[in-house]
Each structure stands twice: as structure tokens, then as C-alpha cells.
Amino acid sequence: MGYLYRVFRATEEENRRAIIATLEPRAGARLLDLGTHRGEFTARVAKRLGATSVSGIELLEEHAEVARGRGIDVRRADLDKGLPFEDAGFDVVHANQVIEHVRRTDTFLREVRRVLAPGGVACISTNNLSSWHNVLSLALGLQPMPMHVSDETIVGNPLNPLDGRPHTDIGRTHLRLFTGRALTELCERHGLEQLSLRSAGYYPLPPRLGRVAARVDPTHGAFLIGLFRPRS
Question: What is the pTM of this model?
Fold first, then answer.
């Protein structure tokens, strides 16, 4: 396992750490996690919030079953088809590394707004298209690392530690990538007002250096973390 792969994984964890830091405790909150997977990070978010009700959406039943074993009320559903929940049913909606996999991003954000209760917040994190490692890749004539062109395998950039590997799951292909401005403007269009926007990680720097770099230059950090509230 080479340096770039270790930093790649460490940067993903740095993003999760930054999400936890962004969310303020809300004792008794009703949490909806979109893209629950096996529920490991969902449980961390719920603990941070002090949530007493934790629901989730997961595409693959094999992962949903594991998450249910952690006490999460997971429903198997396709996010492109909307959310199977009533209006204003959640205080916090969380989606980490999900929106880039969704084809119908307008439906996704419209539904997030619909299920948020008054005073609730949505935390949406995703790859940052304008991160320096993506900009540099394009300058070198290489495919930006999180911009996938195949449903089966990852190709186009030999500097990508995942180059040549298959996607681990169906639905893991990235379909749309965002800059911070694009994410904010699309959320605004669908009734979600920005409270904060930051970046986390600064690939290929290790997490401690990346943390400093992302504070100094948030436009070009590895991941975006946006906090939004329903607009009145």
C-alpha cells in the first residue's frame, strides 16, 4: 500500500472528522442519513448529535442489513426516485459522499428540503471539483481522480491510487461533481440556505498539513462540507 493510497484513505477520514466537527449536538434529534452503507459513520453522526431517532436510505440490501444490526431504521431505496418519508420529518439530514453518485440531483435536493423540519439542517459533503489535485490532473492531460468515465472500472489517471481497480459496488460511479459555488447555488435553487461551507483535506498532503492548508485555502481543499437550512 503506497503513500498516495494511505493519504487518500486518511483524507477520507479527515473529511468525516470535519463533518462531525461541523455538526452541533441536538439532543433528541431525528436524523436521516442518505447513503447509510453499513452504518458505521451513521452511528458516529448520531452519537455526535445525541439523536434518539436514526433512519437511513441505502441502495444495496446487503449493506442495509448490516446497518439495521446497528439499530438504524434503514430502508432500501433509490435516491433518484425520491425519499419514502413524510414532510418535515427530520431535524438533521446527512449525506456524505452521496450527491456525486446521484443522477437526479434536483430531485435529491428538493426531497432533502421537503423532509427537513423547520429549524432543521442538512449537512452535505462531496468531492471538490476545484481541488488542486483535480486542477493539476487536467493540466497534465489526466482524468480528475473523482470524475469517473466507466461504470465498471477507474481509468485515466495513473497518479490515482485506485487507477485500474473496479468500482467496489454497483452505484459507486461518480456521475456529477461540484465546486463549492455550484453546490451552494443548486441548494439555494431548491430552498436550502447556506449556513457554512468549508473544505477538508488537501490531497496529497497528510491530514495534519492538509488541515492547515484547507483553512488557508478552502477553495481548493479535497472535500466540500456544506451546512444548509430550509429557507422560509
Answer: 0.95
